[in-house]
Specification:
Distance between the termini: 35 Å
CATH topology: Growth Hormone, Chain: A
Helix content: over 70%
Largest sheet: none
Structural class: mainly alpha
Number of strands: 0
CATH class: Mainly Alpha
Order of helices and strands: HHHHHHHHHHHHHHHHHHH
């Protein structure tokens, strides 16, 4: 939801803060800045301090930053708060998979991680679909709601998440981080997640705007439609997990998903169609692109240099995710401002082509 509230409130924030579309796109990107810089370090912290502690701290930081932005609604404060939200978001998204792996029995671990991979589309949907109910009171109401939800989840984790075994809180030397950084497997996962995130947010971050340009008159209706489209990505996550469980090769699934995503994005951005066709293509885009995360998460045990470095490996992968969240919308916003939407389609196609080449080169 912390990610999704920015596109949900983009038009309202552009109006009240006097922002261009390009400038507003940086409010979406800002949440990924910290994670793009120190994601692997956050993963190491989760391995050393305990995933439960890091996840709770991340949620508390997200809530505090969101509340600060709502209290002081000035552009520099809002932007800085988004950066701190990004640190908390990175901590939570890196720590929770490790917490699931610790808490769940081995035979239920894979379905639990597949369910976890839906956090992005479900959170985006909650923000986009629920935003119209709150935006009548200004974008600050949406920020307050996200802060309260973050605090509530922190309390639930504190009460209900099981205590981690003492052995999980081991010292994590810098040499182990260097081992992860220098290994080719984690780097490949980081690159692929970067390209996925850049691809996804280059389109998904602007769905309400695209739907309004296609003919949807009511901004709240456009936001709700975008929310349901993004929620379709949860079905794509679960479909990807089901295909992997049926023996589909993860690398083949990644290559096919990137290819189909590029084709679908071209249809959304380059075909002058009505609302119905554009929305249908957006739905397909969200489902197809969502096949990629479960395939990459499934590769973590295989690509980590050692089993005890799974947290840091996930950290490098989520660092790529954050870098894509920073650069994808920013580059897409700049391309749209200078050359219009077909340039964004070409940008996304280049991301997808690079990912397909990397997946072929990293075949295992």
């Amino acid at each position: 939801m912390q990610v999704g509230k920015a596109p949900a409130a983009m038009e309202e924030m552009r109006r009240t803060l006097g922002l261009s579309l390009h400038a507003a796109s940086w409010l979406l990107s800002a949440i990924g800045i910290v994670g793009a810089l120190i994601g692997v370090g956050v993963g190491g912290a989760a391995d050393r301090l305990g995933a439960k502690r890091v996840a709770i701290a991340g949620l508390m930081l997200q809530g505090t930053a969101a509340a600060g932005a709502a209290l002081f609604p000035y552009l520099p404060v809002v932007f800085a708060a988004r950066v701190f939200e990004g640190l908390g978001f990175q901590a939570t998204t890196v720590a929770v998979p490790a917490l699931i792996a610790t808490a769940m029995p081995r035979d239920t671990r894979a379905p639990a991680l597949a369910a976890w991979s839906t956090f992005m589309p479900v959170g985006l949907c909650v923000a986009l679909a629920g935003a119209p109910l709150l935006l009548t009171h200004g974008w600050q109401a949406l920020w307050w709601a996200s802060a309260l939800l973050a605090f509530a989840w922190a309390v639930l984790l504190l009460i209900w998440a099981p205590r981690e075994p003492q052995r999980e809180r081991h010292r994590f030397p810098a040499a182990a981080l260097l081992e992860v950084v220098h290994a080719s497997g984690p780097r490949l996962l980081g690159v692929l997640f970067f390209l996925f995130s850049a691809t996804y947010f280059s389109l998904a971050g602007f769905l309400p705007v695209l739907l309004m340009q296609a003919g949807v008159q009511d901004p709240s209706h456009a936001s709700r439609l975008a929310g349901w489209a993004v929620l379709a990505g949860a079905a794509g996550n679960l479909l990807g997990a089901w295909l992997l469980a049926r023996g589909v090769c993860a690398q083949r699934l990644v290559r096919a998903a990137f290819l189909l995503t590029a084709i679908c994005t071209t249809g959304v951005l380059m075909i002058n169609s009505g609302v119905v066709l554009r929305y249908a293509l957006c739905l397909v885009f969200c489902v197809l692109s969502a096949l990629i995360p479960p395939a990459l998460f499934a590769q973590v045990p295989l690509r980590a240099p050692r089993p005890e470095l799974a947290g840091a490996t996930t950290g490098i992968m989520m660092q790529g995710n954050s870098l894509g969240l920073v650069l994808g919308p920013a580059l897409a916003g700049a391309a749209q401002a200078r050359w219009s939407w077909p340039a964004v389609a070409l940008l996304v196609a280049s991301f997808c082509a690079t990912a397909m080449a990397a997946a072929v080169g990293g075949k295992r």
